[in-house]
């Protein structure tokens, strides 16, 4: 199914289009066999990873072919070769040590699969940060010259510990010192839009360990053969971007800087947007209840320092900001816990106005395995991952109910390629493992999800998997068939939700929302109003937070969608769920209006349009008609059309699954086990539709009743009719009266059905059963209606002479005389049936009496 919201085209280079593809598009691949004794059926991992880049696969052979890797230790734990940065155009910057311990910088192009040598230092340096501009003419490098021990031993106290350089690399020429300080500096070039044909320079961000960010304006002069030199003869122009920050994250795809500044007792998240016209401005401010006292500066996506000080990392915020194409904004933060074996993390859904804090009790509490939670951005989901412990997929667009989050443990949470926590998420649906230097495209495997759905034992797992399959993946007939098959097998195992209702509402939501802007804020996505279930080992606390303040004008893309989400939270609380009260009231009003014969033009148009839609029911698919739904029947069913195709699809798959025939029903034999199973499923469909006050395809009740007659004993059948589970329809009753012979058992069935028919319908179908019992019933109803018309009126004149020969049975004579008088007064309740009169009543009564006495009637 498609993502829940409409996709927004984002300008990006061809290299990253495939990196940013929608989750779930990549086909599943079989995972390695689980360990013996795991008790799990062999299957695939829920998260499917494809290696887009790997240092040992894509770089080491290239280095070896050029003789640059003779002294390179290519083992997994090598610190000689590592990724330094990933640029917006899909270029990956890495560094390695050469034969003479020279420090090299290289670049790998994801699109062309080619490597390029950028620069070499004739020294053994530790590269901390590196960035190349879009034209690959300028290189910014930050590195550590000496450790503190080296400075002391060499008496170099006056020499700076860190150095930041700006280098002309096309051609290799001048080198400028940007910073020579004792604090670490990170560098990052800004990238303009792709279609800019000319360039006059580049802009460079410097993020200092001294908690500030500034922007350098580097102007260049183009010379012959596309060579450039830096134009500024003196100091480069600069502008201060942010101050006093304790955490910062670079969003390279959208050119945004998120950062946090401490403010009194709480922290404040801010965002600066950089524009192609070389301007930038603050666009967002949001207050977060995150403790920041005593924390050290943390920088995310400003390069990847392989040898980051673990002591510094433990004292800094483990926090990341993730955005989604539909305007979602989440802050993911790992929190300290004083309880051994317990992990805490918070997700701030800023676009929804609340925060959820999760506390997880780990199954295994070996101290060496307890590491920080890693967060991944999957666009529709945020993943919280602790290797060897759990994988938690949190729904970004519908996070209010915990049951729509997939929480996996054990083998279900296994990700073979990610066995440590040195994980970064530089792009949507992309993971970089800094420890081994590999970058993976991440997607949710549809086959693994369906396998998980079939194997799940808890309602929370079933509902989360069902919701993911319906709303996260684009609809295909195969996926829909798999879900329908699962529903038909698990109707009785789901206790806290109705899978048919969830399937119907979520499917309609998925199909309709991408077609209309902001429709997802009006339509319900679930049939549940709340969720009182639990996830074993997980507790969740929800807190209302203040909405972010946006500061922008005429902005498009993400900021426009985020603003739309915030507006819907302000003016549409509580969160929209499915309530059928209004719909049920309108349905009742329409029904009453039609019954009172006060049909308005509006209502007549509804009926006419409904008839047109129904006339095309059999053309919805090209297959031969499989399910024998009859064109009938109930105008109330024809008022709403949204469900007909979905229910028809369910019926078709169920019909095929149980190998039922498409022929018209006959009633001369009992139903099979498959028919009984289909009858049960249809009963649940009817229950689900009634609960949502939604229509069913015309002919559904006829088919349902026909299956009931074939499958149920008489007393159960009548109980279902009396309780409203089975609806008596003209098509089925007429066929039943005509096709069944008049055995004693069939007479009971027919009589029981006849007596339960509404009066108008009974008058239409009784003529199809030529039997004394039916004639007796007609006569009784005729007498009853005549007497009701008579009421308590006085009869002062004598009875008229009877034209027929009187029968020597005084009670019958008296009754026929009374009825004849009423008829003479013009009271004829059966005006449309000329064969029903006093004479008919008299003959029927005599015939029935003679039958009861065992006498022959002539």
Describe the protein in words.
The strands form 7 sheets. The protein has a 6-stranded mixed sheet, with no helix packed on it. Strands 10, 11, 12, 13 and 14 form a 5-stranded antiparallel sheet that branches. It is of the alpha+beta class and 858 residues long. Among the domains are: 582-735, no CATH class; 771-858, no CATH class. It has 21 helices and 32 strands. Helix 5 packs antiparallel against helix 6 (459-472), helix 19 crosses helix 21 (838-853) and helix 20 (810-824) runs antiparallel to helix 21. The chain is elongated. A hairpin with a 4-residue loop joins strand 29 and strand 30.
How many beta-strand elements? Answer: 32
- State the separation between the terminal residues, measured CA to CA: 73 Å
Q: Work out the radius of gyration.
A: 38 Å
Low-confidence runs:
1-42, 620-624, 633-640, 794-803
The best one-word shape is elongated
What amount of the residues lies in strands?
A: 15-25%
What is the averaged pLDDT score?
78
- Major sheet characteristics: 6 strands, mixed
Q: Report the structural category.
A: alpha+beta
Helix-residue proportion? 25-40%
